[in-house]
Amino acid sequence: MDAAYTVEQLRAAAADAVRAPSLHNTQPWRFRLHEGGIEVVVDQARRLPASDPSGWGARIACGAALYNLRLALAAAGTPASVRLRPYPGEPDVVARLVPDLPRRPTPAERSLHAAIPHRFSNRRPFWPDPVPADVRWQLGEAARAEQCWLELVIGTSAVSAFGEIARSAHRVLDRDPAYRAERAEWTRAEPAPDGVPAASGGPQSEPQDLLPQRGFGNLHRAPGRDFEPEPLVAVLIAAGNTATDQIVAGQALQRVLLTATDADLAVSMLSQPIEVPSAREQLRLSLGRFGTPQMVMRIGFGQPGRPTPRRMVDDVLDLPVSQL
Ligand SMILES: Cc1cc2nc3c(=O)[nH]c(=O)nc-3n(C[C@H](O)[C@H](O)[C@H](O)COP(=O)(O)O)c2cc1C
Questions:
Q1: What angle in degrees, to the nearest 10, is found between the helix axes of 56-75 and 243-262?
Q2: Nearest by Cα to 249 from 257, 258, 239, 259
Q3: Is 120 in the pocket of ligand 1 (CB under 6 A)?
Q4: Opening angle at CA 73, ends 33 and 46, nearest 5
Q5: What domain range is 185 assigned to?
């Protein structure tokens, strides 16, 4: 056999992979060692039937986990060559990674890898300080390096128009009892290895809010503590909307998030306008770009966030019987 990854390499890289974001922190991934390659597989049992009927969210999450896996392997000096969706008969296998020629990690790989444990969703109001121009450029470069485009929504009227699309998508989703039940089921008041801890949810929405907050938990904000008046809204766009495009977008999302973390920025994600097809189309038209919006981020400077829980690494590994 050619060069092969070991169980130890898989275990170490998977510990970074599981820090990726996922819809309602469902962690819909498994990692397996197969003929010397590491494979990332969508765990369909953890896809949300009401909130993610098409599997878009699970593929974005697996793409983000794949990016962490790539970084972890590169940072260890054992970078991977990656094939997306390698088996036509097994569409849930998102990627297969086999060892490429060993080399030292680049400084960028080192710093993005170091950012993995410090990236959290921060749903609280940010400070009003603007994101500097050079950092905006770096965020765009991060998306481009992963074959995506990051469109920054600039100016009060563009942000208000986006807010309107996002709020109307939020209302459409919230009218569906199955969607509301799923969100409640995955909001955790007690410690749990998955789901969104109520303490990590943002404050309850108020009528003056520009952007809709997906309500996890019951936090209220201090009087006068409004959201930043001009949030930096960034839309991640992929070439299209095939399953492969979504995996590509997941990797780009994670690279943008880690680039933001490395620049001491806070980020929250808003996917309501992606999840409602008519809102997504409206968003696409309003941006006037080719391609398909795959995620929206609110980016700024904020108080440090906190990590959310993950399942144990051994719970997400599938090892050959001889290696158990
Ligand atoms: C596909 C996808 C969609 C998401 N949509 C939202 C959203 O609409 N609102 C939100 O607050 N967080 C959203 N998130 C963030 C997740 O809730 C978050 O990643 C998860 O709870 C884990 O927390 P962490 O990001 O702090 O690690 C989304 C994440 C993914 C991958």
A1: 50
A2: 239
A3: yes
A4: 55
A5: 133-301
Counting beta carbons within 10 angstroms of the beta carbon of residue 276, is it exposed (0 to 12), middle (13 to 18) or buried (19 or more)?
buried
Q: 93: number of CA atoms within 13 Å, CB side?
A: 19
Would you say residue 19 has pLDDT above 70?
yes
* Contact status, residue 97 vs residue 70, Cβ threshold 8 Å: yes
Task: State the pLDDT at residue 230.
Answer: 87
Verdict on whether the full-model pTM lies above 0.85: yes
Give the mean pLDDT of the chain.
95
* 14 shares a domain with 144: no
Q: What are the C-alpha distances in Å from 126 to residues 37, 129, 214, 305?
A: 42, 8, 16, 11
How far is 200 from 123, CA to CA, in rounded Å?
7
Which of 24, 67, 241, 272 gets mutated to test ligand 1 (max ligand atoms within 8 A of its CB)?
A: 24
Could you give the angle at the alpha carbon of 118 between the alpha carbons of 112 and 121, nearest 5°?
110
Total of domains in the chain: 2
Phi, psi of 12 (to 5 degrees): -65, -40
